[in-house]
Design goal:
This is Deoxyguanosinetriphosphate triphosphohydrolase-like protein. One of its GO terms (molecular function) is dGTPase activity. Keywords: Hydrolase. By secondary structure, the chain is mainly α. The protein has 3 domains: 162 residues, Hypothetical protein af1432; 125 residues, no CATH class; 66 residues, no CATH class. Helix content is 56%, strand content 0%. It contains 16 helices and no strands. Helix 14 packs across helix 16.
Length: 402
């Protein structure tokens, strides 16, 4: 009889019964697998709840139908589970990684990350993946016996490496970190528990990463259309999207715009998901991995888009970048959000006592790098709304993000 909560998985899936364990050993649960426990701890964390009021592209008050970090995360989780189920991976681990992948994101979307990256350049830098690791290993304080959530090795390595190795075989930073170096927070934790930074993550993390790309493409098309940043006919410049629109119009001539958008978005998701499953099947058959370690040690990812769909993904992103992410309205909001966060960072560095009392405990006032990290942790954890309220508390004039 299989243990409670177990299901079939392929030999190359991460097995919760064979987990490398947690930094702080804990007794096994009689009702949940190790990866199910990780998922549940993430869902119950304060950082996860704050995703509800963190921006994807639009600020929180622009409309209830636009995505937030939380709704994006839920969509990624659904896609990651579907991919894991189809490819024989552990669904619970894939879900845990999808649910945790955005925990380190700042308020105001990528604007916040850009501000903190610039402000922290002299103090070890800022990276949202590294910040997510700080959250789940240090900043969440819910347990009497340890800081963080004490997640399994497999969840932590997937969280850090879902976009690929951070080091090459010689121990040098890979291209993503060639200029800035691997973030200090990751190196510090890696000294405590080796996450094997020179290898790929397991298949579940790869599935969560590609699910993130799929969800981004689909919901940014949806949000951009509904916000009026571009119209549906403009999407025809992307051959992949034009093909789908032709299919919809052939099946449902005269369909109203709202349903037409829904039909487009769901077909975008379906085509990408089916492609990843087919390409994953092909790569896994060629690799013939007998264990999760074989996937980690492979020369390239096992779970990803085909060459054709990589081009489609790039084309969609190439359209969205100028039409949505750099739209004049979005850029105006980003400019004002940038000012809010820069003001807050400067004030807290100059007057640390302006932060709430719990953030002043053992405050390293005479250690500028540690103080800067404390300020970055505080600001990174803010929701859009809270950042605006903090600015209103400390400054006479606050930009109106509309």
């Amino acid at each position: 009889m299989r243990p409670f909560g177990e299901r079939w998985r392929a030999p190359y899936a991460c097995d919760p019964q064979a987990s490398r364990g947690r930094l702080h050993p804990e007794a096994a649960s009689p009702t949940r697998s190790e990866f199910q426990r990780d998922r549940d701890r993430i869902i119950h964390s304060s950082a996860f709840r704050r995703l509800k009021h963190k921006t994807q592209v639009f600020v929180y008050h622009e409309g209830d139908h636009f995505r937030t970090r939380l709704t994006h995360t839920i969509e990624v989780s659904q896609i990651a589970r579907a991919l894991a189920r189809s490819l024989g991976l552990d669904e619970d681990l894939a879900e845990a990684l999808a649910l945790s992948h955005d925990l380190g994101h700042t308020p105001f979307g990528h604007t916040g990350e850009d501000v903190l990256e610039a402000r922290m350049a002299a103090f070890g830098g800022f990276d949202h993946n590294a910040q997510a690791l700080r959250i789940v290993t240090r900043l969440e304080r819910r347990y009497a016996a340890f800081d963080g959530l004490n997640l399994t090795w497999e969840t932590l390595e997937g969280l850090v490496k879902h976009n690929g190795p951070l080091l090459d075989a010689a121990g040098n930073p890979t291209s993503r970190y060639a200029k800035s170096g691997v973030p200090l927070a990751i190196l510090e934790y890696n000294a405590l528990q080796d996450l094997e930074l020179a290898t790929h993550a397991g298949g579940e993390a790869q599935a969560a990463a590609v699910a993130d790309d799929i969800a981004y493409n689909a919901h940014d098309i949806d949000d951009g259309l509904r916000a009026g940043l571009f119209d549906i006919e403009a999407l025809r410049e992307v051959a992949f999207l034009d093909d789908i629109l032709r299919e919809i119009d052939g099946l449902y001539p005269g369909l109203d715009l709202s349903r037409r958008i829904h039909e487009l978005v769901r077909r975008v998701i379906t085509r990408f998901v089916e492609d990843v499953v087919n390409e994953g099947d092909r790569r896994l058959a060629a690799l013939a991995p007998a264990s999760a370690g074989a996937i980690r040690g492979a020369a390239k990812p096992a779970i990803c888009f085909s060459t054709v769909m990589q081009a489609a993904d790039a084309a969609v992103k190439g359209f969205l970048y100028p039409h949505m992410y750099r739209h004049p309205h979005v850029m105006a909001v980003r400019h004002d959000a940038d000012a809010i966060l820069n003001d807050l960072f400067a004030r807290f560095m100059a007057e640390p006592e302006s932060m709430p009392a719990e953030w002043q405990t053992d405050l390293p006032r005479d250690d500028e790098p540690r103080l800067a990290r404390r300020v970055a942790d505080y600001i990174a954890g803010m929701t859009d709304r809270y950042a605006i309220l903090e600015h209103q508390r400390l400054f006479d004039v606050t930009p109106d993000l509309r």
